[in-house]
Amino acid sequence: MDAGQQKIEQRLAAKERRAAVPGDVRARAAARIGERLDPLLGARPGPLLGYAATGDEVSVDAVLRGWLAAARPLALPRVVGPGDLQLHLVTDLDVDLVVGAYGIREPRDVLPTIDPRDVGTVLVPGVCFDRHGGRIGYGGGFYDRLLPRTGAAVRIGICLEVQLVDRVAADPHDAPVDAVVTEGDVYR
């Protein structure tokens, strides 16, 4: 099987495994992931780039609310074109986000923007990860284009244990992460 086909199959299988996790189990896993993230985020410099979960993705909203409660700068991405994200500073997840592209909550376009190079840490969603930082997204290349633009930011993949594979079938353009956090462990 070629790498392209393997990637398609890994993506499909990981999505099926994630979808099979009951909502209450996913919520407990998200809380545990938040606990694992706390020491990693600690005193990290620069703004945090988060994401607004969609569908059965792991929600990091509690982490983002805690970050905001500590009066620390938070950015979220907004789709501005095919494979292109713009980062906006948000101060209130309930007021500053609207349903945007692909049905994902994203910042209002009137909010201040931030250069990706100014981000200190990125929480990265994905369909499937491996324990070495390999990542497969949804196929649009949004994060593959964004992550190299974040310079020295620490990139942390967020997923459920069921989304892990031994080794993702990554292409050369697939941007890796520095660590992967699940409800079970932190992999670096």
Q: How would a textbook summarize the main sheet? A: 8 strands, mixed
Mean pLDDT, as a whole number? Answer: 94
What is the succession of H and E elements? HHEHEEEEEEEEHEEEE
Beta strand count: 13
CATH superfamily, by name, is NagB/RpiA/CoA transferase-like
Keywords: ATP-binding, Ligase, Magnesium, Metal-binding, Nucleotide-binding
Catalytic activity: (6S)-5-formyl-5,6,7,8-tetrahydrofolate + ATP = (6R)-5,10-methenyltetrahydrofolate + ADP + phosphate
GO molecular function: 5-formyltetrahydrofolate cyclo-ligase activity; ATP binding; metal ion binding
Binding site for substrate: 57
What does this entry look like structurally?
Pfam families: 5-FTHF_cyc-lig (PF01812). This is 5-formyltetrahydrofolate cyclo-ligase. GO terms for molecular function: 5-formyltetrahydrofolate cyclo-ligase activity; ATP binding; metal ion binding. Keywords: ATP-binding, Ligase, Magnesium, Metal-binding, Nucleotide-binding. Belongs to the 5-formyltetrahydrofolate cyclo-ligase family. The protein is of the alpha/beta class and 188 residues long. It has one domain: 3-Layer(aba) Sandwich (Rossmann fold). 27% of the residues lie in helices and 24% in strands. The protein has an eight-stranded mixed beta sheet with strand order 6-3-2-1-7-10-12-13. Helix 3 links the parallel strand 1 and strand 2. The model has no long low-confidence stretch (mean pLDDT 94).
